[in-house]
TrEMBL record:
Cofactor(s) essential for the protein: Zn(2+)
Organism field: Candidatus Avipropionibacterium avicola
GO process annotations (BP): peptide metabolic process; proteolysis
Cofactor binding remark: Binds 1 zinc ion.
Residue ranges occupied by any Peptidase M3A/M3B catalytic domain in the UniProt entry: 185-379
Signal sequence segment: none
InterPro entries named in the record: MetalloPept_cat_dom_sf, Neurolysin/TOP_dom2, Neurolysin/TOP_N, Pept_M3A_M3B, Pept_M3A_M3B_dom
Transport among keywords: no
PANTHER family: PROTEASE M3 THIMET OLIGOPEPTIDASE-RELATED (PTHR11804), SACCHAROLYSIN (PTHR11804:SF84)
Keyword Protease among record annotations: yes
Similarity field: Belongs to the peptidase M3 family.
Protein's UniProt name: Peptidase M3
MF terms in GO: metal ion binding; metalloendopeptidase activity
Domain of life, per lineage: Bacteria
Length: 380
């Protein structure tokens, strides 16, 4: 962040600069901010030590505060607004236009009191958003089942889940438990209980957090001249307006509803073959009966298919396929990382290292639970 602040100071030092020089300095600032942000966001999501995750969240807040400050810096705005785009290529011209637009969206043209409130809102939204995500990430729920209620699950999964002293087995909402149990367990009541527990992660703690976040978003949008958050947020996206979001969802729903109803009817019919008393498909049924229909109607058995896709083969296969696709090779290296589970690879083409990737593929306490990709260093 020191480099980013130094670049802003250079841009506003009163020196006459060409359009290309201003754009180059702006890009340097963006790269510095991006690299600070990506490190902080990654460590907040995956680092095994809680104190590091907490410090990374603070660093993310500091980055956001700088971006708000930069977006309201009138001297910096005047430097960019003074750029003569005559002679610039289309890409450079577009950059200048988007930067000026973002200054307006930060409130650079508002009075002091409004800009101060916008700063408070922006900083608070980061904190509230982090709290919302953290609450879900750290909320691992579970059910406890008998040995009989493991019927249908693969034997290796059962062996990996020994019973506790009371004879019950703990099944958590982490994916390696959740997905197999919802897919294969025969006990419908336990499947529904686990799916419900998963759907309630973060609740009720996040109710008040979400309400505050929505209120802050609305206030920010109104202060910047919009009717509400949907219009403000959509302004810089392909959808364009808040109204268009609802219209698009309605169109998709209209197009998809017939297929969805047909699929639900198929699932319900298969469920009723097990239990005629079932009247509706729940989140605890979908994966299970989808798997049964694949097996019975299409002769595709996931438990048989999985024998061809052990972890090492899948990982190596993905590296092989993407290597062919992008004309690169991956060379495993012994590199510093944040956890022993991480494996690191140099990305090489024609003997030249283009970059490095790190694979962190297993769940653990405090780690972001979904499939994801995080940048570590950006250079563009």
């Amino acid at each position: 962040m020191a480099r980013a602040r130094a670049t802003v100071a250079t841009l506003t030092d009163g020196t006459d600069r060409t359009a290309d020089e201003v754009i180059a300095l702006w890009n340097q600032c963006d790269v510095a901010v991006a690299n600070a942000s990506t490190h902080a966001e990654l460590f907040a999501a995956v680092h095994p030590e809680e104190r590091v995750r907490e410090r990374a969240e603070v660093a993310t807040q500091e980055v956001a505060a700088f971006l708000t400050e930069r977006g309201q810096d009138r001297a910096l705005y005047e430097v960019v607004a003074a750029v003569d785009t005559t002679g610039l290529d289309a890409q450079a011209t577009r950059l200048v236009e988007k930067v000026l637009r973002d200054f307006q969206r930060s409130g650079v043209d508002r009075d002091d009191a409004t800009r101060a409130r916008l700063t408070e809102i922006a900083e608070r939204m980061v904190v509230v958003g982090q709290e919302f995500s953290r609450t879900i990430r750290e909320d691992v729920r579970s059910i406890r089942v008998t040995a009989e209620q493991l019927a249908g699950l693969p034997q290796d999964w059962i062996e990996a889940h020994p019973a506790d002293e009371d004879g019950l087995v703990t099944v958590t909402t982490d994916y390696p438990d959740l997905i197999p149990y919802l897919s294969f367990a025969e006990d419908r009541g336990c499947r529904i209980a686990l799916a419900t527990a998963n759907g309630q992660r973060g609740w009720p703690a996040n109710d008040a957090v979400l309400a505050e976040l929505l209120q802050l978003r609305h206030e920010q949008a109104v202060l910047l001249g919009h009717d509400g958050w949907p219009d403000f947020d959509a302004e810089v996206k392909m959808i364009g307006t808040g109204a268009a979001i609802g219209e698009f969802i309605d169109r998709v729903a209209d197009l998809a509803s017939a297929s969805a109803e047909r699929d639900l009817a198929t699932l319900l019919a298969r469920a009723q073959a097990d239990d005629p008393a079932i009247t509706a498909i729940t989140s605890g049924d979908t994966a299970h009966y989808t798997e049964l229909i694949r097996r019975e109607q299409f002769d595709v058995d996931a438990q048989q298919v999985r024998t061809y896709f052990d972890f090492t083969r899948v990982r190596d296969g993905l590296l092989t396929v993407t290597g062919r696709l992008f004309d690169v090779s991956y060379e495993q290296v012994d590199a510093p990382a944040w956890h022993p589970d991480v494996t690191s690879y140099d990305v090489v083409r024609d003997g030249v290292r283009l970059g490095r990737i790190h694979l962190d593929l297993h769940p653990r306490d405090g780690k972001y639970k979904h499939a994801a990709q995080f940048d570590l260093v950006t250079g563009v």
